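[Automated response] Your request has been received and processed.

Submitted sequence:
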Amino acid sequence: MLNVYLSGEIHTDWRDQIAQGANGLNIDFSAPVTDHSASDDCGVAILGAEADKFWHDHKGAKLNAIRTRQGIEEADIVVVRFGDKYKQWNAAFDAGYAAAMGKSLIILQPEEHDHALKEVDAAALAVARTPEQVVQILRYVLDGTLPK
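Generated structure:
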């Protein structure tokens, strides 16, 4: 069983595309909470309200970090997606954390991000452009087959 953590951008269905493409492969996928409001509000929902937005976000970030650290630590491979919208500081942090832990790292990004992510890409073992390329990498890692 290959454990793959899918980190990064939460505004598109890239995770579903990878899971569907990898159907039948011996892979267990995990990911952060992708419900944006649940992710933002988990700290105050569980630990109590905060009047200051900084502390509201701080509580949520710490609870999400528990899940993220566990997912990355248990993963054999970490896939980090950088999407077109927003500055994804959390994705960059996850990529750095995974690299520092010596995890096999695949970056999924559009070509226009190449310059901005050159240091992140240098730490990765592969830089993919599409979810299908990620599936092809995972298939190759598991059974050595190339795309037809």
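Summary generated for your ticket: The mean pLDDT is 96. Residues 2 and 141 are 9 Å apart (CA to CA).
If you did not submit this request, please reply to this message.
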